[in-house]
Amino acid sequence: MKAIVGYLQTYVRSLNLLSFLGITLLTAVLITLNYTVGIEERCMSIPHYGWRFLAFFGVFLFVFSAAWLIQWLAHRNTIALKPLFWLLLLAGPAIFAGKVSFDWLTRLFTNHYAFPWDRYGYLILNWPLKCLLVLGFITLIWKWGKFEGPVAGMSIKGFDAKPYFILLALMVPLIAFASTQADFLRTYPKVHRIDFIEPYVNQTWSYKLLYELCYGIDFLTIETFFRGFLILAFARYAGKAAILPMAAFYCAIHFGKPLLECITSYMGGMILGVVVYHTRSIWGGLIVHLGIAWLMEAGGAIGHAWLK
After folding, report:
1. What is the predicted pLDDT for the residue at 23?
2. CB of 276 within 8 A of CB of 155?
3. How far apart are CA 266 and CA 245, in angstroms?
4. Which pairs from 95-98 meet CB under 8 Å and 24+ separation?
5. Range(s) of the domain holding residue 54
6. pTM
7. pLDDT score at 219
8. pLDDT for the residue numbered 76
9. Are 137 and 229 in contact (CB under 8 A)?
10. How far apart (Å, rounded) are the C-alpha atoms in residues 27 and 64?
């Protein structure tokens, strides 16, 4: 735990105040716009896969590139704008826009089933398939670019999990508070999305467990992409300056979540980014992120039970 605190202290001391304020202001303006005019909702409502992809690509590219522009203005002498940097700048938003937009492969596997198994199969299969696709693209770029170390920080050598479980425990009071809020309870627990299978099965616990496990796979995708890829690949060209643009981008993927969750994702992404930058491993961040996700599921379930 002392090491994590030390990483954060070192990062805060090294922060360029103007770039931090600029990217934080950019993120705050985008959050305000989203919860005023519904940026994420409008993008998701586009029925055609291709147009939906372009909409999300445009949003993600704007956030990511604007944040990098601010970083470059503050660190122009230390950021190396090599050709591969520009490819990564485009590839990052494109990969995640594809992850958000395309589900035709999942539907290919599930559409021939009758209700409710077509819908249930879609919900549990979508996350693992998208994880494979995202990790595949990241691996190809990593190998092609000859980046140092294991692909996207997926190394367990010398990894100590204890500090991250302590950090996760510190989040429990905040999640407990969030579990009393109406907008939180409108979203969580996500496992309520499979309540439609209850008339068709004798016991739902095994189906809910499988759903939660598949839901957890999505956090492997997110940690590998945002912390492993967007931090460790860009660190070759910008060092610690890679952390703030990643945090802004990470906040943008939470535009469809409750407001408090969206706001805290910016600081949370920054903290996890600092840890991964120093440890060169995504596993600590995955423990915290996945742990929070499952605690939110539990908090949502308890909150709904309390209201009853």
Report:
1. 95
2. no
3. 10
4. 95/134, 95/137, 95/138, 95/225, 96/56, 96/60, 96/134, 96/225, 96/249, 96/253, 97/53, 97/54, 97/56, 97/57, 97/60, 98/53, 98/133
5. 2-307
6. 0.88
7. 92
8. 84
9. no
10. 10
| Dist CA 198 CA 200 (whole Å) | 5
Residue 161 CA, chain-centre distance (Å), reads 20
Contact 210, 117 (CB under 8 A): no
Domain tally for the chain?
1
Confidence (pLDDT) at 32: 94
Single out the residue of 18, 31, 3, 11 nearest to residue 259, CA to CA. Answer: 31
pLDDT at 93: 96
What are the tokens at 266? 């910016």
For residue 196, give both structure tokens: 């439609």
Give the phi and the psi of residue 3 in degrees, each rounded to 5.
-65, -45
Provide block-wise average pLDDT over 10 residues at a time, the chain (308 residues).
78 88 95 92 89 94 95 87 92 94 87 90 93 94 87 79 85 85 82 90 89 93 93 92 95 88 89 89 88 89 74
Query: Positive or negative CA dihedral for 138, 275, 242, 82?
Result: negative
